[in-house]
Design goal:
Blueprint: E1 5-7, E2 15-16, E3 24-28, E4 34-39, H1 46-60, E5 68-72, E6 75-81, H2 93-100, H3 117-124, H4 144-158
Parallel strand pairs: 1-5
Antiparallel strand pairs: 2-3, 3-4, 4-6, 5-6
Helix pairs in contact: 1-4, 2-3
Length: 167
C-alpha cells in the first residue's frame, strides 16, 4: 500500500504546540480544518509509526486521530486534524487523575509511581466520563474502560511505549 505525502505550505505555522518532545505546530489547512504538524526525529521511524498505528487503530475499530505523512520546509513529519470540537477543550489524563485523587501530582515526571492502572480505571469509571464523542461504538464496547483496554491492545500490537499520564 502507498500513502500520499501532504505538502504543508511553507508559511503554515501559526501556533507552536508546547506539549510533547517533538517539534510541532498548529496551522489551518483551510477555513474549516485546524491541523497539527509533528516533525519526526530523523532515523527513528516515528512518522511511519504514527501512520501505521493510525491504520491499525482503524482496523480494530478504535477511536483515534487520523494521520497523514507530510513534508514542511524539507522536514518529514505527519499531520493530524484537531480532535477537539469547536469551542471544546482537551482534558488530559493527568488533569483528570488530579481531580479524582487529591495527592496526585499532575506535573509528575516519567514513570511516576502515582500513575497506576488502578487509578486510571477509577477515573474512567467516574461519572461524566463516557465514550468518545461521535464514535460509533460497537456493541462489545460499552464503557470508557473498554475503550482504554482497546488502546492497551493497540499499544501491544504496535509496540507503543508512550502511554503516559498525559495521553
Amino acid at each position: 500500500m502507498t500513502y500520499q505525502v501532504l505538502d504543508v505550505p511553507t508559511d503554515a505555522s501559526t501556533q507552536l504546540e508546547q506539549l510533547g518532545t517533538k517539534a510541532k505546530f498548529w496551522f489551518r489547512l483551510d477555513a474549516e480544518r485546524r491541523m497539527l504538524f509533528k516533525e519526526g526525529r530523523p532515523g527513528t521511524g516515528e512518522n511511519w509509526a504514527e501512520k501505521i498505528s493510525c491504520e491499525v487503530a482503524s482496523l480494530l475499530g478504535l477511536p483515534h486521530a487520523e494521520y497523514a505523512l507530510a513534508l514542511w520546509r524539507g522536514r518529514q513529519g505527519v499531520v493530524t486534524p484537531s480532535i477537539v470540537p469547536e469551542n471544546g477543550r482537551l482534558i488530559h489524563g493527568n488533569e483528570l487523575l488530579a481531580k479524582v485523587f487529591d495527592q496526585y501530582d499532575p506535573v509528575a515526571s516519567y514513570r511516576d509511581s502515582q500513575h497506576t492502572l488502578r487509578r486510571v480505571v477509577a477515573v474512567l469509571r467516574s461519572p461524566g466520563v463516557g465514550l468518545p464523542l461521535a464514535w460509533p461504538e460497537p456493541d462489545e464496547v460499552t464503557s470508557a474502560v473498554g475503550v482504554f483496554a482497546g488502546y492497551l491492545l493497540l499499544d501491544a500490537l504496535v509496540g507503543n511505549q508512550d502511554r503516559h499520564h498525559e495521553n
